[in-house]
Amino acid sequence: MVTKHILIASALALSLAGCVQGGGYGNSAPLNSAAVRTVGGAATGALIAGATGGSKTQGALIGAVAGGVSCGIPGLPNCY
After folding, report:
1. Per the domain annotation, does 25 fall within a domain?
2. In terms of C-beta density within 10 A (0-12 exposed, 13-18 middle, 19 or more buried), how is residue 74 classed?
3. Domain tally for the chain?
4. In sequence order, what are the residues at sequence separation of 6 or more whose Cβ sits closer than 8 angstroms to the Cβ of residue 25?
5. Distances 5 to 1, 2, 12, 30 between C-alpha atoms, Å
6. Residue span of the signal peptide, if any (predicted)?
7. Residue 20 counted as domain residue
8. Domain range spanning residue 64?
9. Residue 28 CA: distances (Å) to CA of 1, 14, 21, 77
10. N or C: at which end does the chain have fewer Cβ atoms within 10 angstroms?
């Protein structure tokens, strides 16, 4: 039970990491892009689905769609 909570908490932290502004090494690429949010959402969805006993593929698909769409949600940082 504790392991499930740790996995879910780390997955949520990973998904929020896509909201960080700035670039990678030497500020070469923005971390707050639609691609980063889509990949982060897919990874987070797969982790949460795996931790809760669901389909990892379906969780990754739902997470990728949610991550990509998050660029247009008011209140969240805009994508670059």
Report:
1. no
2. exposed
3. 1
4. none
5. 7, 5, 11, 30
6. 1-22
7. no
8. 33-71
9. 40, 21, 12, 19
10. N
pLDDT tens digits, 49-80: 888 888 889 989 998 998 888 888 888 777 77
For residue 63, the one-letter residue type is: G
- 16 located within any domain: no
Kindly state the tokens that stand for 43.
């990874």
Give CA–CA dist 59/79, Å, rounded.
23
C-alpha to C-alpha distance for 44 and 11, rounded to whole angstroms: 5
DSSP 39-74: HHHHHHHHHHHHHHTS-HHHHHHHHHHHHHHGGGST
Q: Give the tokens for residue 76.
A: 């969240």
Q: pLDDT (tens digit, 9 = 90+) per residue, 5-24?
A: 666 766 666 666 655 555 55
